[in-house]
Specification:
Elements lengths: L18 H9 L2 H26 L2 E7 L4 E5 L9 E7 L10 E5 L8 E15 L2 E16 L5 E4 L18 E5 L3 E2 L5 E5 L2 E7 L5 E7 L9 E4 L4 E5 L9 E5 L3 E2 L5 E3 L8 E10 L5 E11 L21 E8 L6 H11 L4 E5 L8 H6 L3 E6 L4 H4 L3 H19 L5 E2 L16 H11 L3 E2 L4 E2 L9 H11 L5 E7 L3 H16 L2 E3 L16
Parallel strand pairs: 2-6, 14-19, 20-21, 20-26, 20-27, 21-22, 23-24, 25-26
Antiparallel strand pairs: 1-3, 4-5, 5-6, 7-8, 8-9, 10-11, 11-12, 13-15, 15-16, 17-18, 18-19
Helix pairs in contact: 3-9, 8-9
């Protein structure tokens, strides 16, 4: 078929012209014939178009560009790939047409989640017999995910260490995630086999682990100390048995068995010997201590003739013996003034204090008794051995004699006859208490303790301690120390109380009543 205005038909081999038309052609005039042919052609055209339309198959081709499921990392840019679309027929519109496409839905890559993008394609076919709408819908799933694991930063501090066997003390750490931000509080911390494990998990399930190797160290040396005294004085011929040493380490525990002693003591040769005790812990920390042993040459004791015993009036009634140890000192002269004021006589067990020994003659001239206490009031020296004690005793006896011309015969042991500080030399007090008596001396302890050497530090306390216990005894030997000012301050009140209560104050002499403690060594 050419054109509807053409004046001829184009038929196929199967087309037949009706006989009526042929007959009509022979007898119809030309205009009528033409009209008839045109109408017939139109009929054929319409019929043909209708057949073509019904035979033709139209297709709306619509497909996604790329995958139907797309994964995008959090924070990255999502690139829309769009669709490919076309509308065409098998007979008509074989060259195709472009349908209209609409897109619905958005993808936010700043928020993890699953998004849907919808595409709708439409094509309106307009033909003579009517209109027909072709439509097709596609969907694409877009997943915004976070696959980046958190980051853990471990803090380290200079000089930081953990003692062996002790739990690790945290230096510090921080955890951050590209999506969740700071997740330090969510970190799981475990300590195992000398390491610390840090595990962080973000909201997307991404995990990361950091491991810290614990640095163990022990810079603390052991503690070591000698048993007994660190200074010992012996005389040639004495036996020396080392008391040993103990050591303890903060990590290794008891290291006593690991102590190494160096040095020796030659008891038959005078001199000063040093014994060194050393120990090291498992980390190489060393500690040591020393003990000095002085071996003095043997010096025969110098025994001065005994001074005639002072014979005070026989105690008649209630008697108080005021005794003062460890002087003379800076408060002794004031004490002598107080005693002179009331004409009270006392007893002084003195120590060789060179700065105040000039007060001894006044003591004697005032009628007080001067007794021996110690040349050096150092327990581990005085009681290092029997000979050490006697050497000290003879030395203070000689010093008193040199100042007063009197050789004293009464004494008080440092710490008293019941002392335990002499345990460095087992049994020494048992021997000494008997020995001094065999040599013609008398020793005195006390039955009333003012507690001025430890129980109180005030004159009122000293006073109360003394007057509290005096009434309990027929006669009272009171212990005070004239090296303490507060104890001297209490004396005048004690004297006044004694006088008011009918007591007599007397000095100790060789003929005074016995006052001895139970020996405990």
């Amino acid at each position: 078929m050419k054109n509807k205005n053409d004046t001829y038909f184009e038929t196929s081999d199967t087309a037949e012209i009706p006989e009526a038309i042929i007959s009509e052609k022979k007898r119809m005039p030309l205009p009528a014939l033409i009209f008839t042919i045109v109408n017939f052609a139109l009929l054929v055209l319409v019929t043909t178009c209708s057949l073509i339309i019904h035979k033709n198959v139209f297709t709306l081709a619509f497909e996604l560009v790329g995958d139907s499921e797309v994964t995008v990392e959090y924070g990255e840019v999502y690139e829309e790939q769009g669709t490919k679309e076309s509308f065409f027929g098998t007979i008509l519109l074989k060259d195709g047409r472009v349908p209209e496409v609409e897109t619905f839905g958005e993808v936010n890559t700043e928020v993890v989640g699953t998004y849907t993008v919808e595409y709708k394609a439409t094509y309106l076919l307009d033909y003579h017999v009517g209109e027909k709408l072709f439509t097709e819908t596609l969907r694409r799933t877009v997943k915004v995910i976070d696959t980046v694991a958190p980051e853990i930063k471990l803090e380290t501090k200079d000089g930081w260490y953990t003692l062996p066997g002790q739990p690790y003390s945290e230096e510090g750490f921080a955890a951050s995630d590209n999506y969740d931000g700071d997740i330090t509080s969510k970190v799981e911390v475990k300590e195992k086999d000398g390491k610390v494990y840090y595990i962080a998990e973000d909201s997307s399930g991404n995990k990361t682990e950091a491991v810290r190797e614990i640095f163990y160290d022990d810079p603390i040396p052991p503690e070591i100390g000698v048993l007994g005294y660190s200074e010992i004085i012996l005389t040639v011929g004495d036996n020396y048995g080392d008391a040993g040493c103990t050591a303890f380490d903060n990590v290794d525990g008891d290291l006593t068995s690991s102590i190494i002693m160096s040095g020796e003591v030659l008891t038959d040769t005078p001199g000063t010997y040093t014994l060194t005790y050393s120990v090291a812990d498992s980390y190489g920390n060393e500690a040591s201590c020393i003990r000095t042993v002085k071996i003095n040459p043997y010096v025969p004791p110098v025994v001065f003739p005994s001074a005639p015993a002072v014979s005070p009036s026989a105690p008649n009634g209630k008697v108080i013996y005021l005794t003062f140890d460890d002087g003379p000192g800076k408060h002794t002269e004031r004490l002598l003034d107080i005693l002179d004021k009331y004409d009270v006589k006392a007893t002084f067990f003195v120590v060789n204090n060179p700065d105040y020994m000039h007060l001894l003659p006044r003591m004697v001239s005032s009628g007080h008794t001067v007794g021996m206490h110690a040349n050096e009031h150092v327990y581990n020296k005085v009681y290092a051995s029997d000979d050490a004690y006697y050497n000290d005793l003879y030395t203070i006896q000689s010093a008193i004699n040199s100042y007063t011309g009197i050789t004293p015969t009464i004494l008080r042991f440092p710490g008293g006859g019941s002392n335990r500080v002499s345990r460095i030399c087992p049994g020494i007090m048992t021997r000494l208490t008997a020995g001094v008596k065999d040599m013609g001396y008398r020793y005195f302890d006390w039955n009333v303790d003012s507690c001025d050497a430890g129980g109180t530090r005030s004159a009122w306390g000293v006073y109360n301690n003394v007057i509290k216990y005096i009434p309990k005894f027929e006669y009272s030997v009171v212990l005070q120390h004239d090296i303490y000012g507060y104890s001297v301050d209490a004396v005048e009140n004690i004297i006044n109380w004694g006088i008011e209560n009918g007591y007599t104050f007397l000095p100790l002499t060789s003929d005074s009543p016995v006052c001895e403690h139970t020996v405990k060594n």
